[in-house]
């Protein structure tokens, strides 16, 4: 396959959200003023990249980030449900530290068992497992790559999706990324023809998990 026909996909974590600032887990919330500034800075950084399309998770924090970047390129943002963050079920809106303490045994198990076992673990009722998350997300990425051969696409995304994607693609293991997260507006550059995937660049990963 001619790699010139690969779609280049920028997968971008949103700017700081209200929930991030409050230490809450999974709640759909707007960007803070700091988050808007972060998105604006990234838009400036990307101003010389020609994006053929900008897509986004429908969740407010990712969509607003994508819109700020899209304005720099005179593009509209198309939202797709399959690009949304993991569904957290009963954990949504909980304080992050409180939730981590309550589920400490499960989180400890996460790094002591093979990933093939962990990826099917449901942390709480309504929680989307890694396997379920990648089932929908990878399918959507494949469709995007096929629809935009040789083009460049940006996706407004989320930290849970991005870390799980790297693990799924073999770019490190779940133990490699223990305690790490993408900073707000960190990103992955992925190349794909809809069958093969190549991680070209990872920016903003190596911080304490938020």
Secondary-structure blueprint:
Blueprint: E1 7-13, H1 18-22, E2 24-25, H2 33-45, E3 53-56, H3 60-73, E4 77-79, E5 94-95, H4 96-102, H5 104-110, H6 115-118, H7 130-147, E6 152-157, H8 159-168, E7 180-192, E8 197-208
Parallel strand pairs: 1-6, 3-4, 3-6
Antiparallel strand pairs: 1-7, 2-5, 7-8
Helix pairs in contact: 2-3, 7-8
Q: Mean pLDDT, nearest integer? A: 92
Reported by name, the CATH topology is Rossmann fold
Q: What is the H/E string?
A: EHEHEHEEHHHHEHEE
Q: Supply the CATH superfamily name.
A: Phosphoglycerate mutase-like
How are the strands of the largest sheet arranged? 4-3-6-1-7-8
CATH class: Alpha Beta
Q: Percent range for helical residues?
A: 25-40%
Major sheet summary line: 6 strands, mixed
Tell me the number of strands.
8
User: What CATH architecture label applies?
Assistant: 3-Layer(aba) Sandwich
Low-confidence stretches: none
Q: Return Rg in Å.
A: 17 Å
- Contiguous helical run count: 8
Q: Note the overall shape.
A: globular
Oligomer: single chain
- The amount of beta strand, in percent, is 15-25%
Domains (count): 1
Strand pairing plus helix content: what structural class? alpha/beta
Beginning-to-end CA distance, first to last residue: 39 Å
Name the features.
210 residues; alpha/beta; Rossmann fold; 8 helices; 8 strands; 37% helix; globular
Q: Short description, anyone?
A:
The chain is of the alpha/beta class. It has helices at 18-22, 33-45, 60-73, 96-102, 104-110, 115-118, 130-147, 159-168; strands spanning 7-13, 24-25, 53-56, 77-79, 94-95, 152-157, 180-192, 197-208.
